[in-house]
Design a protein that fits this description.
The chain has a domain at about 5-170 and about 200-230: Rossmann fold, CATH 3.40.50. The chain has eleven helices and twelve strands. Helix content is about 40%, strand content about 15%. The strands form three sheets. An eight-stranded mixed beta sheet has the order 4-3-2-1-5-6-8-11, with helices on both faces. The protein has a two-stranded parallel sheet with strand order 7-12. Strands 9-10 form a two-stranded parallel sheet. With about 300 residues, it is α/β, with parallel strands linked by helices. The chain starts with a strand and ends with a helix.
Length: about 300
Protein backbone atom coordinates (compact mmCIF):
# COMPACT_ATOMS: atom_id res chain seq x y z
CA UNK A 1 0.00 0.00 0.00
CA UNK A 2 1.29 3.45 -0.90
CA UNK A 3 2.38 5.78 1.86
CA UNK A 4 0.31 8.96 2.19
CA UNK A 5 1.73 12.46 2.57
CA UNK A 6 -0.57 15.25 3.74
CA UNK A 7 0.60 18.64 2.47
CA UNK A 8 -0.75 21.90 3.88
CA UNK A 9 -0.31 24.70 1.38
CA UNK A 10 -0.18 22.04 -1.30
CA UNK A 11 -1.75 24.25 -3.97
CA UNK A 12 1.03 26.85 -3.70
CA UNK A 13 4.30 27.21 -5.62
CA UNK A 14 6.38 24.81 -3.51
CA UNK A 15 3.43 22.51 -2.84
CA UNK A 16 2.70 21.89 -6.52
CA UNK A 17 6.31 21.01 -7.29
CA UNK A 18 6.59 18.81 -4.21
CA UNK A 19 3.35 17.00 -5.07
CA UNK A 20 4.77 16.18 -8.50
CA UNK A 21 8.02 14.81 -7.01
CA UNK A 22 6.26 12.69 -4.38
CA UNK A 23 3.70 11.19 -6.76
CA UNK A 24 6.52 10.32 -9.16
CA UNK A 25 8.09 8.41 -6.27
CA UNK A 26 5.00 6.39 -5.48
CA UNK A 27 3.32 8.38 -2.69
CA UNK A 28 -0.36 9.27 -2.52
CA UNK A 29 -1.03 12.89 -1.59
CA UNK A 30 -3.65 14.61 0.54
CA UNK A 31 -3.95 18.39 0.41
CA UNK A 32 -5.80 20.77 2.70
CA UNK A 33 -7.64 23.50 0.82
CA UNK A 34 -10.08 26.24 1.76
CA UNK A 35 -11.94 25.68 -1.51
CA UNK A 36 -13.50 22.60 -3.11
CA UNK A 37 -11.23 20.84 -5.58
CA UNK A 38 -11.79 17.67 -7.58
CA UNK A 39 -9.79 14.63 -6.47
CA UNK A 40 -7.43 12.94 -8.94
CA UNK A 41 -5.92 9.46 -9.06
CA UNK A 42 -3.00 10.51 -6.86
CA UNK A 43 -4.28 13.54 -4.97
CA UNK A 44 -7.20 13.88 -2.53
CA UNK A 45 -8.38 17.27 -1.28
CA UNK A 46 -9.74 17.97 2.19
CA UNK A 47 -11.35 21.07 3.62
CA UNK A 48 -10.01 23.18 6.44
CA UNK A 49 -10.73 26.67 7.68
CA UNK A 50 -8.13 28.02 10.09
CA UNK A 51 -10.11 31.13 10.98
CA UNK A 52 -13.15 29.09 12.01
CA UNK A 53 -11.08 26.34 13.60
CA UNK A 54 -12.37 23.66 11.21
CA UNK A 55 -10.40 20.71 9.89
CA UNK A 56 -11.38 17.45 8.20
CA UNK A 57 -9.79 15.00 10.62
CA UNK A 58 -9.74 12.16 8.08
CA UNK A 59 -6.85 13.79 6.21
CA UNK A 60 -4.67 13.78 9.34
CA UNK A 61 -5.67 10.28 10.40
CA UNK A 62 -4.83 8.68 7.03
CA UNK A 63 -1.46 10.43 6.75
CA UNK A 64 1.87 8.68 7.22
CA UNK A 65 3.72 11.99 6.89
CA UNK A 66 2.67 15.64 7.09
CA UNK A 67 4.48 18.45 5.30
CA UNK A 68 3.42 21.87 6.54
CA UNK A 69 3.83 24.63 3.93
CA UNK A 70 0.71 26.71 4.62
CA UNK A 71 1.03 30.40 5.41
CA UNK A 72 0.08 33.83 4.10
CA UNK A 73 2.70 35.23 1.74
CA UNK A 74 5.25 37.35 3.58
CA UNK A 75 5.73 39.71 0.63
CA UNK A 76 2.25 39.72 -0.90
CA UNK A 77 0.84 42.80 0.86
CA UNK A 78 2.03 45.76 2.90
CA UNK A 79 2.54 44.91 6.58
CA UNK A 80 -0.36 46.44 8.47
CA UNK A 81 -0.98 45.25 12.03
CA UNK A 82 -3.75 43.00 10.71
CA UNK A 83 -1.55 41.63 7.94
CA UNK A 84 1.19 40.78 10.43
CA UNK A 85 -1.31 38.93 12.58
CA UNK A 86 -2.55 36.97 9.56
CA UNK A 87 1.02 36.02 8.59
CA UNK A 88 1.74 34.63 12.04
CA UNK A 89 -1.61 32.94 12.66
CA UNK A 90 -1.74 31.26 9.26
CA UNK A 91 1.47 29.46 10.16
CA UNK A 92 1.11 28.72 13.86
CA UNK A 93 -2.66 28.22 14.20
CA UNK A 94 -2.78 25.82 11.28
CA UNK A 95 -0.26 23.59 13.07
CA UNK A 96 -2.32 23.87 16.26
CA UNK A 97 -5.32 22.39 14.42
CA UNK A 98 -3.24 19.43 13.31
CA UNK A 99 -1.75 19.02 16.78
CA UNK A 100 -5.21 18.79 18.34
CA UNK A 101 -6.25 15.98 15.97
CA UNK A 102 -3.02 14.04 16.51
CA UNK A 103 -3.30 14.32 20.29
CA UNK A 104 -7.03 13.55 20.39
CA UNK A 105 -6.61 10.30 18.46
CA UNK A 106 -3.10 9.44 19.67
CA UNK A 107 -2.11 9.36 16.01
CA UNK A 108 1.56 8.64 15.30
CA UNK A 109 3.16 9.97 12.14
CA UNK A 110 6.43 8.75 10.67
CA UNK A 111 7.48 12.41 10.41
CA UNK A 112 6.19 15.97 10.54
CA UNK A 113 8.12 18.35 8.29
CA UNK A 114 7.51 22.08 8.58
CA UNK A 115 8.59 24.96 6.42
CA UNK A 116 10.39 27.81 8.14
CA UNK A 117 12.62 30.61 6.86
CA UNK A 118 16.13 31.97 7.12
CA UNK A 119 14.36 35.13 8.28
CA UNK A 120 14.55 33.48 11.71
CA UNK A 121 18.05 34.97 11.94
CA UNK A 122 16.55 38.44 11.58
CA UNK A 123 16.40 41.25 9.03
CA UNK A 124 20.11 41.99 9.20
CA UNK A 125 23.06 42.90 7.00
CA UNK A 126 26.63 41.91 7.70
CA UNK A 127 29.25 39.25 7.21
CA UNK A 128 28.14 36.79 9.90
CA UNK A 129 27.41 33.32 8.52
CA UNK A 130 24.27 31.95 10.17
CA UNK A 131 24.20 28.27 11.07
CA UNK A 132 21.30 26.46 12.69
CA UNK A 133 22.91 27.25 16.07
CA UNK A 134 23.10 31.01 15.49
CA UNK A 135 21.11 33.01 18.11
CA UNK A 136 17.69 33.93 16.73
CA UNK A 137 16.40 37.49 16.31
CA UNK A 138 13.16 38.91 17.68
CA UNK A 139 12.25 41.36 14.92
CA UNK A 140 9.08 40.59 12.95
CA UNK A 141 10.65 38.09 10.56
CA UNK A 142 12.60 36.41 13.33
CA UNK A 143 9.73 36.17 15.77
CA UNK A 144 7.33 34.94 13.06
CA UNK A 145 9.65 32.07 12.15
CA UNK A 146 10.23 31.26 15.82
CA UNK A 147 6.48 30.98 16.46
CA UNK A 148 6.22 28.83 13.33
CA UNK A 149 8.90 26.48 14.66
CA UNK A 150 7.52 26.45 18.20
CA UNK A 151 4.22 25.21 16.78
CA UNK A 152 6.12 22.40 15.06
CA UNK A 153 7.90 21.61 18.33
CA UNK A 154 4.49 20.86 19.86
CA UNK A 155 4.13 18.08 17.31
CA UNK A 156 7.54 16.77 18.35
CA UNK A 157 6.35 16.67 21.97
CA UNK A 158 3.92 13.93 20.87
CA UNK A 159 6.88 11.68 20.09
CA UNK A 160 6.85 12.41 16.35
CA UNK A 161 10.07 13.02 14.42
CA UNK A 162 9.97 16.68 13.42
CA UNK A 163 12.06 18.51 10.82
CA UNK A 164 12.12 22.27 10.19
CA UNK A 165 13.29 23.55 6.80
CA UNK A 166 14.62 27.13 7.00
CA UNK A 167 14.19 28.20 3.41
CA UNK A 168 16.00 30.92 1.49
CA UNK A 169 14.95 32.66 -1.72
CA UNK A 170 13.26 30.02 -3.89
CA UNK A 171 13.99 30.13 -7.62
CA UNK A 172 11.47 28.36 -9.81
CA UNK A 173 9.90 28.22 -13.21
CA UNK A 174 7.12 30.74 -13.89
CA UNK A 175 6.37 31.39 -10.25
CA UNK A 176 7.69 32.70 -6.95
CA UNK A 177 10.16 35.56 -6.67
CA UNK A 178 11.30 35.41 -10.29
CA UNK A 179 7.78 35.89 -11.61
CA UNK A 180 7.78 39.43 -10.18
CA UNK A 181 11.31 40.29 -11.32
CA UNK A 182 11.43 38.95 -14.86
CA UNK A 183 9.17 41.56 -16.54
CA UNK A 184 11.40 44.36 -15.19
CA UNK A 185 14.67 42.73 -16.24
CA UNK A 186 13.31 41.44 -19.52
CA UNK A 187 12.68 45.03 -20.62
CA UNK A 188 16.19 46.06 -19.49
CA UNK A 189 14.93 48.10 -16.54
CA UNK A 190 16.42 46.01 -13.75
CA UNK A 191 18.86 47.33 -11.17
CA UNK A 192 20.17 46.55 -7.72
CA UNK A 193 18.20 47.62 -4.65
CA UNK A 194 19.50 49.93 -1.93
CA UNK A 195 23.19 49.34 -1.28
CA UNK A 196 23.10 46.12 -3.31
CA UNK A 197 25.36 44.56 -0.67
CA UNK A 198 22.58 42.63 1.08
CA UNK A 199 23.03 38.86 0.80
CA UNK A 200 20.42 36.75 -0.99
CA UNK A 201 20.78 33.06 -0.05
CA UNK A 202 18.90 31.16 -2.74
CA UNK A 203 17.77 27.64 -3.60
CA UNK A 204 16.39 26.13 -6.78
CA UNK A 205 12.88 24.72 -6.37
CA UNK A 206 14.09 21.25 -7.41
CA UNK A 207 16.70 21.24 -4.64
CA UNK A 208 14.19 22.47 -2.08
CA UNK A 209 11.74 19.70 -2.95
CA UNK A 210 14.59 17.20 -2.81
CA UNK A 211 15.36 18.35 0.75
CA UNK A 212 11.74 17.76 1.77
CA UNK A 213 11.97 14.31 0.20
CA UNK A 214 15.15 13.65 2.19
CA UNK A 215 13.34 14.71 5.37
CA UNK A 216 10.76 12.00 4.73
CA UNK A 217 13.23 9.28 3.79
CA UNK A 218 15.98 9.81 6.36
CA UNK A 219 14.91 8.77 9.83
CA UNK A 220 18.02 10.39 11.32
CA UNK A 221 16.88 13.82 10.12
CA UNK A 222 15.33 15.98 12.83
CA UNK A 223 15.48 19.58 14.02
CA UNK A 224 16.26 22.63 11.88
CA UNK A 225 18.14 22.74 8.56
CA UNK A 226 19.06 25.73 6.41
CA UNK A 227 17.77 25.23 2.87
CA UNK A 228 19.78 27.72 0.83
CA UNK A 229 23.00 27.26 -1.12
CA UNK A 230 25.97 29.01 0.46
CA UNK A 231 27.51 31.00 -2.41
CA UNK A 232 27.44 34.53 -0.92
CA UNK A 233 25.21 36.02 -3.63
CA UNK A 234 24.48 39.70 -2.99
CA UNK A 235 21.64 41.71 -4.50
CA UNK A 236 24.11 43.31 -6.90
CA UNK A 237 25.44 39.93 -8.03
CA UNK A 238 21.93 38.56 -8.42
CA UNK A 239 20.78 41.60 -10.42
CA UNK A 240 23.82 41.58 -12.71
CA UNK A 241 23.43 37.84 -13.34
CA UNK A 242 19.75 38.18 -14.22
CA UNK A 243 20.53 41.09 -16.56
CA UNK A 244 23.29 39.04 -18.22
CA UNK A 245 20.83 36.26 -18.96
CA UNK A 246 18.63 38.79 -20.76
CA UNK A 247 21.65 39.98 -22.75
CA UNK A 248 22.59 43.34 -21.25
CA UNK A 249 24.59 45.10 -18.56
CA UNK A 250 22.68 47.02 -15.89
CA UNK A 251 22.66 50.67 -16.88
CA UNK A 252 20.30 52.11 -14.28
CA UNK A 253 21.53 53.26 -10.84
CA UNK A 254 20.53 51.31 -7.72
CA UNK A 255 16.98 51.96 -6.57
CA UNK A 256 17.40 54.23 -3.50
CA UNK A 257 16.50 52.60 -0.21
CA UNK A 258 14.30 55.52 0.84
CA UNK A 259 12.05 55.06 -2.21
CA UNK A 260 11.61 51.36 -1.43
CA UNK A 261 10.75 52.25 2.18
CA UNK A 262 8.19 54.81 1.03
CA UNK A 263 6.60 52.27 -1.31
CA UNK A 264 6.61 49.26 1.00
CA UNK A 265 6.89 50.59 4.54
CA UNK A 266 8.30 48.11 7.05
CA UNK A 267 8.08 45.33 4.47
CA UNK A 268 11.00 46.99 2.63
CA UNK A 269 13.35 45.13 4.98
CA UNK A 270 12.72 41.98 2.90
CA UNK A 271 14.46 43.66 -0.05
CA UNK A 272 17.01 45.80 1.78
CA UNK A 273 18.41 43.31 4.26
CA UNK A 274 19.88 39.86 3.94
CA UNK A 275 22.04 37.37 5.75
CA UNK A 276 24.69 34.82 4.90
CA UNK A 277 23.78 31.25 5.83
CA UNK A 278 25.61 27.96 6.02
CA UNK A 279 24.27 24.84 4.30
CA UNK A 280 26.86 22.59 5.94
CA UNK A 281 24.40 20.76 8.20
CA UNK A 282 22.23 19.41 5.38
CA UNK A 283 25.29 18.68 3.19
CA UNK A 284 26.97 16.77 6.02
CA UNK A 285 24.00 14.39 5.91
CA UNK A 286 24.97 13.56 2.34
CA UNK A 287 22.62 15.94 0.52
CA UNK A 288 24.07 17.29 -2.72
CA UNK A 289 22.70 20.46 -4.28
CA UNK A 290 22.01 19.99 -7.96
CA UNK A 291 22.18 23.73 -8.61
CA UNK A 292 25.27 25.42 -7.19
CA UNK A 293 25.77 28.09 -9.85
CA UNK A 294 23.36 31.05 -9.81
CA UNK A 295 23.48 31.68 -13.56
CA UNK A 296 22.77 28.04 -14.37
CA UNK A 297 19.91 27.97 -11.85
CA UNK A 298 18.35 31.11 -13.31
CA UNK A 299 18.70 29.85 -16.88
CA UNK A 300 17.05 26.58 -15.91
CA UNK A 301 14.14 28.49 -14.38
CA UNK A 302 13.68 30.90 -17.25
CA UNK A 303 14.41 28.83 -20.34
CA UNK A 304 14.10 25.11 -19.67
Amino acid sequence: MRKNVLITGGTGFVGKNLTHLLTENGFSISIFSRNFKQNTANVSYFKWDITNHYIEEEAVLKADYIIHLAGEGIAEKRWSAKRKEDIVQSRAQSVALIYEVLKKHNKKLEAFVSASGIGIYGAINGEQICSENTPLENDFLGSTCQLWELAADNIESLGIRTVKIRTGLVLGKEDGFLKKLTPIFKFKLGSALGSGKQYMPWIHIDDLCAIYFEAIKKTNMSGAYNAAFSDDTTNTIFSKTLAKIYGYHIWLPNVPAFLIKIALGEMAQILLTGRRVSSSKIENLGFQFRFKNLENALRDCLYK
